[in-house]
Amino acid sequence: MTPEETVRTYFDSWNAKDFDRLQQILADDVTFQGPLGQANGAQECRKGIEGLSAIVTDAKVRHRFVDGPDVLTWFELHTTQAPPLQTANWSHVVDGEVTRI
Question: Where is each SnoaL-like domain found (predicted)?
Fold first, then answer.
């Protein structure tokens, strides 16, 4: 999978709440650092996304920028708790796996 296809799978899986599929494209040692917290490892990242998904109704991708292994996704985060929020996600992909978010 290309980096763009990998990140597309990430968002498609998140929106479908298919966390098994989402975890398959996370590297075992993936790291997440962002305003919503930090996570280390595929299991911890999955747990964080699953928890967030309790209030997320949609992550509408508006645009995706690809520069080699780096993919920036601009999306609108829809939740049950607040108006839609414009959000950016930077992912680094190696060999079809997300290694950093």
Answer: 7-100
